[in-house]
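User: Okay, second chain of the day. Same drill as before: sequence in, structure tokens out.
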Amino acid sequence: MGLTLTEKILKAHLVDGEFVKGTEIGIRIDQTLTQDATGTMAYLEFEAMGVPRVKTERSVAYIDHNTLQSGFENADDHRFIGSVAKKHGIYFSRPGNGICHQVHLERFGIPGKTLIGSDSHTPTGGGIGMIAIGAGGLDVAVAMGGGAYYITYPKVVKVELTGKLSPWVAAKDVILEVLRRLSVKGGVGKVIEYCGEGVKTLSVPERATITNMGAELGATTSIFPSDEITKEFLKAQKREDVWTELSADADAVYDEVIEINLSELVPLAACPHSPDNIKSAEELSGMKIDQVCIGSCTNSSLLDMLKVAHILKGKTVHPDVSLSIAPGSKQVLTMLAENGALADLIAAGARILESACGPCIGMGQSPNSKGVSLRTFNRNFEGRSGTKDGQIYLVSPETAAISALTGVFTDPRTIGDMPEFKLPETFLINDNMVELPADEKDMDKVEILRGPNIKPFPETAPLVDSIDCACSLKVGDNITTDHIMPAGAKILPLRSNIPAISQHCFTVCDESFPSRAKTLGQSIIVGGSNYGQGSSREHAALAPLYLGVKAVIVKSFARIHRANLINAGILPLTFKNEADYDLVSQGDNLVIENVRKSVEEGKTELTLIDKTSGKEIPVLCELSGRTKDIVLAGGLLDYTREQLDK
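Assistant: Same drill. Structure tokens below.
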């Protein structure tokens, strides 16, 4: 029996466990990346481990999220990250160099390697044939220290691509079609592997758009083969030497197969407020719009920007529309400037933003009240834009650009013939905004620069004998990490200050939650299905930890957030019977007796006693040997210290 590409790379990196679907495996990590919204905490955690130098082949710290410096906090964090990177062997991508995933694809990604990043859109690297996985900052810190990264051995879904995209139909429409079919939780526990003749019609930037937004499926990651097109891209980046041809065996066996004829796809849009709420651009045609934002790690490549420039050239943005454009990297921005495309964008009335995440994480460009905003981003959760009642639609750059001109939602297929867009044979290479780490012999001379906003990791403690406390909050299905720990220009600067940022925890759902949880001292949160979908931000676990949350009981978890709860020492439990969710109310006094002993003995079913209602509810505690030990120790940091001491 042949192997899938996913299986080939995972097997080559296996260091712990066996290849049995649904069991936990540990893999060796070749590369890591962090960004500044998660990086400060990740490096504080790395320091706490006491490992002097990273042990990966390449680790890169990017500054791309918290680039709006309205106070000292972000600038202080950037200085801290830069000094830690220089001291501990990490490459440092300075602010202005670009969005982590775009830059990593251009300059550092290598086919066949493993990459984890403290950002949920790390699977972008799958566009060049990497196993690239989003993870919590603590998992990244452990990997930098030489530890394995643990995942559930995934199912592998084959997406068989045939045909070729029609003019003005984009790679964004491919992943929107996958989301339409699978939903935001259809990829949980799975890797999405793209195969078929249609793959050869897609450039690396187009493949990266698809793997990037695969995160919205809840998938572990997504991956394309590494072929001649990959080789051409790496050659143009003057990195041809790292190329390896990689593909699945012809007789590989998949757990699921989806067939998509690229020729049959039409321009699509994800409607408010979920990436899987899909309609065609034709259905939405004529809807008045207020704002267009083009960029993000999903759609900010040179190829995307050239298409947008072509559509806008010689025209003017509609007077009722605000158009902003953020090229994904310094490389992209410089090449646009040199070939004249940047002038076309500016002349049309676009507002050019720096090469950073910007409005995708609510860092500026919030739309007007009830404003309709078309964005080439990957998420449109309620309030994420910074405007609570903003109506956010996710579209391709082509749909965004033509709609910016017309002032209404417009199907890009109406604008005439599409020219052939080709990537350059050679990209402009200038890595002067990447700082190299100090030599090992000089690392002790490097001073770590800490600002007053940088606070220690929250206090942790081993799992208690019994949990007896109130339900401090009950929430519904599809709660995102934006609900738990909001982003935006006001809150993101507090990422290195857990006591301060915890005051914003769950305020999207209930403004009184932080004060109530702190007053209770200890509490339990109850949630619905797909709890914790979205960003990899471990602050969505660290803030509840600081506020005294001991357990979270839900119908089902999103992968990364469940791992982050375990890493924080918070017990993740699921209702054995989903209908039992209705039996628990906010404010109920909940008890789990002898919980430590039960976890130590490996019991998978515990009893939740609701003292308020008098009901006994079975809940599942599905922890493997390693995750069990992490929870017992009080979290991954404590567990790792114990292992290092041994």
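The mean pLDDT is 95.

User: Thanks, on to the next one.
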